[in-house]
Write a structure and sequence with these properties.
It is a single chain. The chain is α/β, with parallel strands linked by helices. It is 40% helix and 20% strand. The strands form 2 sheets. It has a 6-stranded mixed sheet, sandwiched between helices. Helix 2 packs across helix 8. The longest helix is centred in the middle third of the chain and has 21 residues. It is globular. Bound molecules: adenosine-5'-diphosphate and magnesium ion.
Length: 291
């Protein structure tokens, strides 16, 4: 028998387990990811803009993700969260285009994007806090046959198989983020850092190709930061791309292969962490100083 971990990263097993509807898209081999098809970037925005009344929160952003882990930094109000909201389908752009693996996705809602492999993490809500860690993962998966009464009565065998497969998938996801030993703990009892790991595991349930994170280190104790970094790095090594907004520049330095700096709704500069932090314009944008 295959081990659970292998099943998790075997896309065929994963697709079977979750009743995947992504038949129109090629499935990457584990580990190879979409980097193999390097001519098509995982994510691309063209002249993306978002206006709130007279304020242009995002003012013409061309972003191309071509590294496994990309950081998005910049001062408060730069437009980082707005950009992530648009890419994740939470908000509509005023102008411009977003492409995910070459496909225009500007009009798709979050659940459709998740089905394509573009997943944003969300804080564990109050309702989910009262459920166990494992239950949280089972709720994170896409629609199943057993979710309608008709499905339950018409196809009980299929529902049971789906349940068993979902639990295996959930177990693999929890092992992936080192939370399996807490599977039966209420989500509300987890520390800030463990909750971030649970958010990641919920994203992993959706077989993501790109995960969007908005300030993953916020509320995480220093001792847990390293575990969080290792977990994200491990997922990236398995072929999951990341776009990460983070205030803590040490986290960005430790994680990101590429960093984009945003200020006043635009990409000011991009490059390695060392390159962008050596840029006088970046220091100015952060500190509000004129050189
Ligand atoms: N829903 C909204 N309505 C009006 N203004 C908004 C809204 N969301 C964000 N803004 C404004 O857009 C700008 C960018 O905000 P945001 O994207 O949250 O920046 P960041 O995440 O970089 O701190 C800010 O000036 C903010 O006040
Ligand atoms: Mg923000």
């Amino acid at each position: 028998m295959r081990s659970v971990a292998n099943t998790m990263w075997d896309p065929v097993a994963f697709r079977a387990a979750e009743g995947d509807s992504r038949d129109e898209l090629p499935v990457p081999a584990p580990g190879a990811a979409s980097r193999a098809r390097s001519n098509v970037p995982l994510l691309e925005t063209r002249n993306l803009a978002k206006r709130y009344g007279g304020l242009e929160a995002v003012a013409g952003v061309d972003l191309v993700l071509s590294h496994p882990i990309t950081g998005l930094i910049g001062p408060n109000g730069a437009g980082k969260t707005t950009l992530l909201n648009i890419v994740s389908g939470v908000e509509r752009a005023s102008a411009g285009e977003v492409r995910f693996r070459g496909r225009a996705i500007g009009a798709l809602p979050p659940h459709r994007l998740a089905a394509l492999g573009l997943v944003r993490t969300f804080q564990i809500s109050r309702e989910l806090n009262s459920l166990t860690v494992l239950e949280n993962l089972l709720l994170a998966r896409p629609h199943q046959a057993g979710e309608s009464l008709f499905g339950l009565f018409a196809r009980p065998g299929r529902v049971r198989r789906e349940e068993a497969a979902a639990i295996e998938t959930a177990r693999a996801a929890l092992q992936r983020v080192n939370l399996w030993r807490l599977a039966d703990a209420p989500a509300g009892s987890l520390s800030g850092g463990q909750k971030k790991l649970l958010e990641l595991a919920r994203a992993v349930m959706l077989a993501p190709r790109l995960i969007l994170l908005d300030e993953p280190a916020a509320g995480v104790a220093p001792a847990m930061e390293e575990i969080l970094i290792d977990t994200i790095r491990g997922l990236a090594a398995d072929g999951v791309g990341f776009l990460i907004i983070e205030h803590d520049l040490e986290i960005i330095a430790a994680l990101c292969d590429h960093v984009c700096v945003m200020a006043a709704g635009q990409i000011l500069t991009e490059g390695s962490f060392a390159e962008v932090t050596a840029d006088a314009r970046v220091v100015e944008a952060y500190l509000g100083l004129k050189p």
